[in-house]
UniProtKB/TrEMBL annotation:
Its cofactor is Mn(2+); Mg(2+). CDD domains: HAMP, HisKA. It is a multi-pass membrane protein. This is Signal transduction histidine-protein kinase/phosphatase MprB. Residues 167-219 form the HAMP domain. The chain crosses the membrane at residues 143-162. The keyword Transmembrane helix applies. Residues 227-424 form the Histidine kinase domain.
Length: 426
């Protein structure tokens, strides 16, 4: 951008200088020519009176003095054919003046000016001055050099000013871009300088307004999510009391554990809403996955499902929070129970990932994915559900520096592989 501004200013300034300096240079040459011609004419006219009244000897002395002091060549052709002053041939203009007509014209090497005068005897004489080309252009070269230097100086000054302005404009643009990148990283307190030059300042002001609006919307969203804890507190308390009232301790413990899981899920949503995007989270995947598999194994036993597990003992630190990883495992195992018939077996494997982190595999013996189903798209489902389970798992895996892939299990069902990145080292 800076280079383009400089090129534009250079082209514009050059056109202006050419349009200004070329006519001025021609004018300087014309003025120099006219000045030399006027000086030669004045020298010739000074001899007019002497030719008319002076004797030949005095006229010869006067002509020699004028010729010696004048930058042009001064000659007098007398009526009897003598040439006084600078030697000169009888040119056509001299012959014309001898017949009584004064004239001037350009000849080889310069300009010739002739005047017809009458001597004391009434005969016609001729005063001739010859101005050389060097005299006609005296000082023109130096004046042109000065004009050229002036043009270079003006061009340099214009480029210097344009460079300063372009630097300020480019710097302001870079600052606005840097602020936008900071906002993208979650630094919502970043603001651009609205005093930036011209349109960049308008963009900076609009970006600041947008950042303020984003902060306001996020604050409202966090407050709304925070209200969720108060809204579900009473129903959860009622469920817990009902669970404690059950006669079977095993059922009471299982339902109580479910209520606790709902409470943890709600709390994790609130914490995630309040947590800044730049905050880091980590947990031991081996502990979390083992706990969630144990929780779902009870339901698997009730639905006559065979559970095969191969879980690493750990520790397996990953770049995901405990609540997020629990939600991921619950989403995958919940899909198994929701989309496969009772009695369908499933397997859960957890191991270290090459390069750090962990790899989780959940495979079932169900019917698999419907043909052409895009279940990784948020809200898409091939089984009549909300379509959020796999999307939650995918987003958690990507936020942890990994990813999620779908495949076919050896039993013909669905196999979901989740890669989780390693936790940040202290």
């Amino acid at each position: 951008m800076r280079r383009r501004v400089l090129l534009l200013v250079a082209a514009t300034t050059s056109l202006v200088l050419v349009a200004f300096l070329v006519p001025l240079a021609l004018l300087v040459r014309t003025v120099a020519t006219e000045r030399a011609v006027l000086a030669a004419t004045a020298d010739a006219q000074a001899l007019t009176a002497l030719v008319a009244v002076a004797d030949p000897a005095s006229l010869a002395v006067a002509v020699a003095q004028v010729d010696a002091t004048s930058p042009s060549q001064v000659s007098v052709f007398t009526a009897d054919g003598a040439v006084l002053g600078a030697p000169a041939p009888r040119t056509p203009l001299v012959e014309l003046a001898a017949r009584g007509s004064s004239a001037s014209g350009a000849v080889d090497g310069g300009r010739e000016i002739v005047f017809a005068v009458r001597d004391p005897a009434g005969r016609t004489g001729v005063i001739r001055t010859f101005v050389t080309d060097a005299a006609l252009t005296a000082g023109v070269g130096r004046a042109w050099l000065l004009l050229a230097g002036l043009g270079v100086v003006l061009l340099a000054v214009g480029l210097l000013v344009a460079d300063r302005l372009a630097r300020r404009l480019v710097r302001a643009t870079i600052d606005v871009a840097a602020v936008s990148h900071r906002l993208a990283r979650g630094e919502l307190d970043a603001r651009a300088d609205p005093a930036a030059p011209v349109e960049v300042g308008v963009v900076a002001g609009a970006l600041n307004t947008l950042a303020g609006r984003i902060s306001e919307l996020l604050r409202e969203e966090r407050e709304t999510v925070a209200d969720l804890s108060h809204r579900v507190r009473t129903p959860l308390t009622a469920l817990r009391l009902d669970a404690e009232a059950l006669r079977q301790p095993e059922d009471a413990a299982r339902i109580g554990a479910g209520v606790d899981a709902v409470q943890r899920a709600v709390s994790s949503v609130i914490d995630a809403a309040r947590r800044r995007a730049t905050d880091t989270a980590e947990c031991d995947a081996a502990v979390v996955v083992a706990e969630r598999v144990a929780f779902w194994s009870v339901l698997a036993e009730d639905t006559e499902r065979d559970v095969r597990t191969d879980l690493a003992t750990g520790p397996l630190p990953v770049a995901a929070g405990r609540a997020d990883l629990e939600a991921l495992v619950d989403a995958l195992l919940g899909n198994v129970f929701a989309h496969t018939p009772d009695g369908s077996a499933f397997a859960v494997r957890l191991g270290p990932r090459p390069g750090g982190g962990a790899r989780l595999l959940v495979a079932d013996a169900g019917p698999g994915l419907p043909a052409g189903a895009d279940v990784l798209r948020r809200g898409a489902s091939g089984g009549g559900s909300t379509g959020l389970g796999l999307d939650i798992a995918r987003r958690t895996a990507e936020q942890a520096g990994g990813g999620l892939t779908l495949g076919r299990s050896p039993e013909g069902g669905l196999a979901v592989t989740v890669n989780l990145g390693p936790a940040a080292r202290p």
